[in-house]
Each structure stands twice: as structure tokens, then as C-alpha cells.
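Anyone up for a design puzzle?
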């Protein structure tokens, strides 16, 4: 399963129900953002020792690529993917056993990137940790020079490749934010002074649902996140613009950067599967038709994603590419975007 439909401990007691339409809120800043595709500039592999930074790319929108660590100890494939998109994206995020698929911890892959002058963004979930191990891993990341993190609750282990695994049940999103806020202030969660505090830039990843009430509660949570010093929020993947628009006003109000995300649709079967999952945002029929009518089926998902990405550009501060097992296709996808 690509998205979990379990209840969030941050929003207890909320049941998912399908509701497909609601009025789109106003978007005061959209008119001022350019969507002119002619400004896209081609990108090429930069010198191995040049760092990926936002200033190194001359493109009209911020693009982040997520890469999964290996399922094993060999980092060669991971590094090959990262180097193949160097200079073509603004940042690389390293996932943390995404979709409850057991993989290497993101710490070693992040260190490997830093050794090649690529500043990574590390994703860390609360699913597999209690507050002690969560703080310990954050201190380790800070000691290794990792400054940018994105926290998320994590997908239900029952939907991954280790279905008998149990979550810790100790951490919800607010507790994780309290942990990081404390570490940044030089103390642990118990109030004890640290021998050297952290200085993290804090991002949060939020899963979306097709339930208007749940999404509204998650949008309202932006005010809490602002108080904890969150600088950016990434919305989970959806091809429904109406859902994304619900978060734009509160992002503007709080000053938190809003990142949308794009997932490659692998097949018509995948779309139908997702559309039958309770609580998961449905894929609009127009994208199902595009997939069915594509002349080259194997490329249809990337072509649809590239076309949809153009619609996302004016809706936020950047876009995250979720390869979900298609990491080797990232260079080809960036070719479609002319980056």
C-alpha cells in the first residue's frame, strides 16, 4: 500500500470518510507566481565536488528528490542515483523505511552524501522509535553535520514488508516537535542540559486524506507547528488540486513554506487500486484516461506526472519527487522537465 489509512495519533478519534468536493479557498499569491515553462533551463551533471544548493540552479521552482536507502549494506546504487541528479535538483531527501519497507537507516546514506559535498535532508519517523531513541538519532545526525530534517509519523507496519512489526506507540507529531524544539534549545525532552545542542531546520511531512474534516484539522495544525519553529511542510501525494488548495491560506498566514509532492503512477491498475482504498485521496478520472490512452504505456506514468507538475508549480514553494521504487527513472523524468 502506498499510503496508510490508519488513524493519526495527532488527531485521535477521527474516522476517514469519502468526500470528494469542497470549495477551494482563495490563493492570494498565485497570480504573482510564474508558470511559464519557457523559463525552464537544461541541467547537466556538475563536477563531483560541487555541492547541490538552491543557488546553483537557475530554474523557476524549487525541486527536491527523495531517494530510498538500500535494502542491504551496499550504498553503490543509492550513491549512483544521487550523483546522476546532482545539479538538476535543489535538494536530496533520504527516506526512513518509507511505506514501512525495512531499509538501511538514513544516517549512513546522509553521511555518504555529505562526504561528496551534497547537503542532504534527512527524513526521520516516529513509527519505530520511542522518545529516547528518537532524541538519540537526532543527536547523532547533528554530530554528523546533518542540519535539515523532515519528521513524519510513518506508515503502518502492517502495510509494509514486516507486517508483524509493532510501532512504538510513544511518538505522535506534536511530541516529536517538542523533542526537536528542546534539542535546538540545548536541552533534552526531560529538561536536562545537553553537552552541545542541535541547530536543525525543521520540516514536517503530512499525509493527506479525502476527508475534508481531517484535512482541515491538519491545516489548522500549521499554527502549532509554527510555534515549534517548523519552516516547511510537505503535503503527501495527491492528484486532486482541490485538496492542496485547502492548505494554501494557512501556509501563507503562518509563513511556513508549502511543498507539494508528485508520485509516479505506475499503471492503470495502480490508479484503480488507490481509488478503492478508504481514506486515500482518489486519482481524478482525467488521469486514468491519460494513462489508458498513452501510446507508450511504460512511459505513461512519468508523462502524466510531468504534466501535472506544471499545475503544482504556482501552488506552493516547491515540489518533492517521490520515486517510490523508480529511483533509476529520476534522470529520465528530469529530462522531461528540461532540467
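Challenge accepted. My sequence:
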Amino acid at each position: 500500500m502506498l499510503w496508510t489509512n490508519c488513524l493519526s495519533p495527532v488527531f485521535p478519534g477521527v474516522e476517514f470518510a469519502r468526500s470528494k468536493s469542497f470549495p477551494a479557498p482563495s490563493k492570494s499569491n498565485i497570480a504573482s507566481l510564474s508558470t511559464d515553462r519557457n523559463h525552464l533551463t537544461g541541467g547537466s551533471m556538475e563536477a563531483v565536488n560541487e555541492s547541490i544548493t538552491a543557488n546553483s540552479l537557475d530554474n523557476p521552482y524549487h525541486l527536491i528528490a527523495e531517494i530510498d536507502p538500500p535494502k542491504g549494506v551496499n550504498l553503490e546504487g543509492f550513491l549512483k542515483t544521487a550523483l546522476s541528479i546532482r545539479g538538476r535538483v535543489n535538494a536530496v531527501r533520504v527516506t526512513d523505511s518509507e511505506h514501512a519497507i525495512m531499509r538501511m537507516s538514513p544516517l549512513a546514506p546522509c553521511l555518504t552524501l555529505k562526504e561528496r559535498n551534497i547537503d542532504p535532508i534527512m527524513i526521520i519517523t516516529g513509527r519505530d522509535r520511542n522518545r529516547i531513541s528518537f532524541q538519540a538519532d537526532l543527536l547523532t545526525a547533528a554530530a554528523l553535520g546533518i542540519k535539515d530534517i523532515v519528521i513524519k509519523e510513518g506508515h503502518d507496519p502492517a502495510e509494509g514488508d514486516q507486517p508483524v512489526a509493532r510501532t512504538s506507540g510513544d511518538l505522535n507529531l506534536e511530541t516529536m516537535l517538542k523533542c526537536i524544539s528542546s534539542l535546538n534549545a540545548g536541552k533534552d525532552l526531560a529538561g536536562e542540559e545537553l553537552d552541545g545542542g542541535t541547530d536543525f531546520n525543521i520540516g514536517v511531512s503530512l499525509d493527506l486524506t479525502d476527508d475534508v474534516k481531517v484535512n482541515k484539522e491538519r491545516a489548522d495544525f500549521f499554527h502549532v507547528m509554527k510555534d515549534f519553529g517548523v519552516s516547511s511542510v510537505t503535503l503527501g501525494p495527491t492528484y486532486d488540486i482541490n485538496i492542496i488548495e485547502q492548505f494554501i491560506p494557512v501556509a501563507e498566514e503562518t509563513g511556513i513554506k508549502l511543498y507539494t509532492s508528485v508520485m509516479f503512477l505506475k499503471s492503470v491498475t495502480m490508479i484503480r487500486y488507490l481509488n478503492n482504498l478508504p481514506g486515500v485521496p482518489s486519482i481524478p478520472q482525467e488521469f486514468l484516461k491519460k494513462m489508458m490512452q498513452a501510446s507508450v504505456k511504460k512511459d505513461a506514468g512519468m508523462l502524466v506526472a510531468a504534466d501535472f507538475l506544471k499545475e503544482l508549480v504556482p501552488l506552493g514553494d516547491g515540489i518533492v519527487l517521490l520515486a517510490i521504487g523508480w529511483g533509476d527513472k529520476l534522470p529520465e523524468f528530469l529530462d522531461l522537465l528540461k532540467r
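A detail worth pointing out: Confidence is low (pLDDT under 50) at residues 1-56.
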